[in-house]
Amino acid sequence: MSSYSFLSKDELAELQKELQAKYAKFKSMNLKLDMSRGKPGSDQLDLCMGMLDVLDSNSILKSQNGLDCRNYGMLDGLPETKELFAELLGLRPEQIIVGGNSSLSLMYDMVARSMTHPTVEGMKPWGKYEKIKFLCPAPGYDRHFAVTEFFGVELVTVPMTPAGPDMDVVEELVSSDETIKGIWCVPKYSNPQGYTYSDETVRRFAALRPAAKDFRIFWDNAYCVHDLYEEGDKLLNIMEECEKLGSEDMVYIFASTSKISFSGAGVAVIGASEHNIARIKKQMTIQTIGYDKINMLRHALYFKNADGVRAHMKKHAAILAPKFQLVDDMFTSHLEGKGIAKWTKPKGGYFIAVDVLPGCAKRVVALCKEAGVIMTSAGATFPYGKDPEDRNIRIAPTYPPMEELKQAAELFCLCVELVSVEKLLAEKTSNEKVKMFA
Amino acid sequence: MSSYSFLSKDELAELQKELQAKYAKFKSMNLKLDMSRGKPGSDQLDLCMGMLDVLDSNSILKSQNGLDCRNYGMLDGLPETKELFAELLGLRPEQIIVGGNSSLSLMYDMVARSMTHPTVEGMKPWGKYEKIKFLCPAPGYDRHFAVTEFFGVELVTVPMTPAGPDMDVVEELVSSDETIKGIWCVPKYSNPQGYTYSDETVRRFAALRPAAKDFRIFWDNAYCVHDLYEEGDKLLNIMEECEKLGSEDMVYIFASTSKISFSGAGVAVIGASEHNIARIKKQMTIQTIGYDKINMLRHALYFKNADGVRAHMKKHAAILAPKFQLVDDMFTSHLEGKGIAKWTKPKGGYFIAVDVLPGCAKRVVALCKEAGVIMTSAGATFPYGKDPEDRNIRIAPTYPPMEELKQAAELFCLCVELVSVEKLLAEKTSNEKVKMFA
């Protein structure tokens, strides 16, 4: 297929009619599909049902340290669950706190505590500064941005590249501006592009020399074991890199089993330097006596070790890889070569990012919605929900069953075509020049 | 036994020798007992093991609203779990948010959010005031006081009476001082005395007219169904009283199953007016996508309804009532009539409070520790851990098995006697007058 940029006004008008007819047909189907969030499908959740059998009324609910998991205590979690995550994340068990079912909560709590209490002994809490800022590599994860926005932190967009955030920009900003207190990162299979930070990017993170002594990297390793194929991306271990340089207090690592076991009932962890762990525990002990240890035990017994988790993730991959493939196939057959869209081909994670022609993303998402398919809001992947070029759309292919996913992807492609044609027609009238994709 | 106040110096010295000999014998036993915290015993936790059988790999994990409990979503919790708690607490399901495993966390989060975000639309967050204060009925719960202390809130002691906090003091302070933003309450079987607020106290709470429009009552109904005997204390429903007066936004209610199901793996709730629930959810949605719904489902299926919970609590009572009785019997036989101690006789909850002679509590707890029995730190029941008269000691009789409890209580009585005799001997020398109990 040749690029739409070669079409004449009449050809575009003709094409528009065709596409409108197809769209009308889609609307008449009264679809009700949801591709908005990175949720596992119910077949993925079925994979873990065996976890509900590892404990029953005959079980001894003791941790390997002899303590009763049913009772109060063990603020930082069960030793065996710490070990499991330590192995998965390449940390020492002493660098782990096991939390509740949500890593988002752990990140929120970390920001919340930092607002009211010092991050570094003797410094002011972030909330006592006139103004503070967070770097937000974008496109990025809307819930990250929302946490800092909620606390009145100014969000500063940093461009994303296939190797991670633009580190020239990050280094320049972080080393010169002491009001910059942190950066949000999804270092492996980034949300939404599925990019994995390069070794150089990770090393440059570890080597940051921030103007603010209480600057922190929020390293949300949400997709640490979420490979789609045998050969997944490899992420360098940031803690090891930091330890080489003595900057290990600068990074907070987060992960969870939300997309390994159950999204609604997994376990989440913080990984941090021993010094940070001690400081966090001192504050956390005011908030809780301990998180759900029976669920931690369930996870430790079910997965046994990191290999157990990796074997389990292969089952997820068997379900997810065909979905990612389907979307890519649809995009290729409907959009490739037309100069109207560009998309990523991640080897893991939960999302595909699509760029459409500037000024078209919102309208594409609106048309999808009108025809019964809910997409992530256009703009959601940028700070304050505002995509400056209105072009990035996050595709979440995991939740719908294949048949529905196919319909949704087809409709999406149709909407991209339709809105692009509208745009190009408007261009012919206004003589504005639309920048097409190569 | 007649009061020690009638003993001569020589008689006291003689008695001291006897008691010291007994104490030496205790020390030689190398006891290692813990009466410090309100933890259920393992036999109590055994009562709920059946909850681990209600879900297994063959279960359909759908909520009654059709949603999959395994997946993300349902920020405010499962409808069936909301209903269960609504029935227990005399609220409407719309007035409930079901959280994670810890009501302390829910209280902490509520205070934390109030520090950084307005409690009442248009007002400043608490953290933006030069100084704010919280009323702390004391003796009270150390973890409550610690939460507000952590956020730099000034703790103001309010005297407790058998009918609840001294409401003359509460009304006077709350109506005149707009820096007072809240009060901590354990309205039923208070920690540590086991007092239940009278109907009049509850009504006076509902009728408060605070100087601060963002004043809130933190109503920690931790022991709402924790009766020891058939005839338990009755607590008036504060939400109903507030609704009569239009003051329903003034109260936040908290409860949990930590001492019903599993202390480490229960579910906790917030009860509040519909208006407050909407406001809390708006903030909470930044913090989490939802709490552990599989555990909520487990609780709803296992207990079925409020009657199910009440029937279960009878089994707890069968274990706990003899422990409370034992302690009371020991206190009666060793301390009654001597004028050296006074203690409460609660009909529920987790604690007994003992007052000893002024200036003696710390030394009693220290002597117990020296002989191998850990008590709650003297002073812990007061703001900043400082009992102005050094006389209140919290007894937590639930955790140790009967035989250990008997030893611990015996040692405790001995230490009270010994320290009292020391005190009275010192009095004879210094001519200070010790105020004995009637």
UniProtKB/TrEMBL annotation, chains A, B:
Cleaved signal peptide residues: none
Keyword terms, alphabetized: Aminotransferase, Transferase
CDD domains, A to Z: AAT_like
Domain of life, source organism: Bacteria
One matching Pfam family: Asp_aminotransf
Transmembrane helix is among the record's keywords: no
Presence of keyword DNA repair: no
A molecular function (GO) term: L-aspartate:2-oxoglutarate aminotransferase activity
PANTHER family tied to this protein: AMINOTRANSFERASE, PUTATIVE-RELATED, ASPARTATE AMINOTRANSFERASE
Record-given protein name: Aminotransferase class I/II-fold pyridoxal phosphate-dependent enzyme
Organism this protein belongs to: Zongyangia hominis
